Fold this sequence. Notes:
The complex is a heterodimer of chains A (139) and B (377).
Chain A: H1 2-10, E1 15-19, E2 23-30, E3 39-46, E4 52-57, H2 96-113
Antiparallel strand pairs in A: 1-2, 2-3, 3-4
Chain B: H1 13-28, H2 32-50, E1 62-66, H3 68-71, E2 82-90, H4 101-111, E3 120-122, E4 127-131, E5 135-144, E6 153-157, E7 162-166, H5 168-179, H6 204-219, H7 229-239, H8 246-266, E8 274-275, E9 278-282, H9 286-289, H10 291-313, H11 318-326, H12 328-346, E10 350-352, E11 358-360, E12 366-367
Parallel strand pairs in B: 2-5
Antiparallel strand pairs in B: 1-2, 3-4, 4-5, 5-6, 6-7, 8-9, 10-11, 10-12
Helix pairs in contact in B: 1-6, 1-12, 6-7, 6-8, 7-8, 8-10, 10-11, 11-12
Amino acid sequence: MQQDQFVRSRFPHFRRTTNRGDRIKWRGTLQPSPRSDLYEVEIVYEIPCRPHIQVVTPRLTTWGDLKRQPHTFRDGSLCVHQAHEWHGNKLIAETIIPWTCLWLAFYETWLETGCWLGEGTHPDLPEHSPFGEIVGAAA
Amino acid sequence: MATAEKPIWFQSSREQLDALLLEVCDGLQLRPSRHELAVERYGTVNEILEKAGSPFRFLRPRIFPQGSMALGTTCKPVEGPHDLDFVLQIDAPHWRWHPLAGLSALYEFLSSNETYRKMISLKNRVVRLTYADEFYMDILPAYTDLSSGGTCILVPDRARVSLCPSNPEGFILWFRNRCLTRTRRVMEKAKPVPAQEAVHEKEPLQLAVQLLKRWRDLAFAEECLAPISVVLTTLAGMYYAGEESVSEAMTTILSGIVNAIALEDLQGKRIVVRNPSNLLEDFGERWDANPQAYNAFKAGIRRLQKEWTVIVAGGRETDKELERLFGEYVRTALVKRAQRLQEARKAGALAVGSTGAITGLASGVARIRPNVFHGDA
């Protein structure tokens, strides 16, 4: 499958764990910067659904009483694009995985500072500003 | 003044840590506007001391900065104004006067001035002018030490009622030479009121001293136990080995200090911190009267070394440790980096490498295409 070829050639740390015709699952590691955590990520692509992205390890954490991180679904999976930004003709290796790396980079800053700086939809949700205001943002 | 581009992606953990520390130091140092104001204030005092009516006008008075302003290691205090130090050196045979005569004369003369009367106070060795919400200007009157020669001076000490040896200009020259990394060792004369370097122009040793001072300001709640800046600066200068990286410089400096303490502990002694340009001056002498402070310093620096080893070896989690050591400037630096990342993303300048590392377009395996993070409403 073309998706699998591109994922594994561009990101050698990813391996295919399931390939069942219309459903494919990969697991691999991503590290957005040298001092970042090493994240194990699972991506499940089942035609015709959008790829499902879950961070397996380390467990994603939040601030205080917040139940979720910014830009995640209720099941804790990541939402790295709007619906119209991805379709089956686009390569996961050129879209989903790079967007996941970016999400992880902004997540790390959010975890340290309370500031989600990657923008996105629904900025009014409480997880975007755990302190109710931007903390430490430059003037 | 040229500004260096601040990196967004890094080749190594060391590079990333160094960039973060550089940004922390940028937050710590005196703002250029404050620096210019300090120079202006110092210039005004200088003029007054040279004018008619000044008891010093025939003694070839020379005012020059010492301390952090001269060394390029200014560090914003946790609270209160900056402390800026100057020496008023006069060419006069000190033996003809009482040891405290110069200090008294300076205090009385500036007290007679309408402006300074309201802001003046007398300390153990200096006359202090307090510019509210700006800085303290500490002026140390000193005689040229004719018997020691060179740039050595004699400074008053009210507690001892005597003159004590010192050599701030020699110290500045020594430190500036120690700053030069292994690749550059050039003799350079100390200049009066050096222009403030931008943080990216600073040497790793200067940055390390700023960080040590900041650590001191946060780690020691009681000022009487905190090591004084010249002790930290001298120890850093002594043990710095020319590293190009500020994080590596910190590792070497901390290791040197901790080892030196351990050696002296074996003999039941404290470390001696001599002014390298005037061995008669021991910057650590206050510890003799305050052994509790020396013990606090030993415990603190050992703890810092252990924590530093973890920070250098560790990853994201250690950013919290860095914030504990150096305060809110770490958080600000992380936010600024993420803001630059976002700007680069909007400009279409980002890619990811095969390990998922965010990088530039030239070295990535996949360009990061435009997207909008979404999620459940």
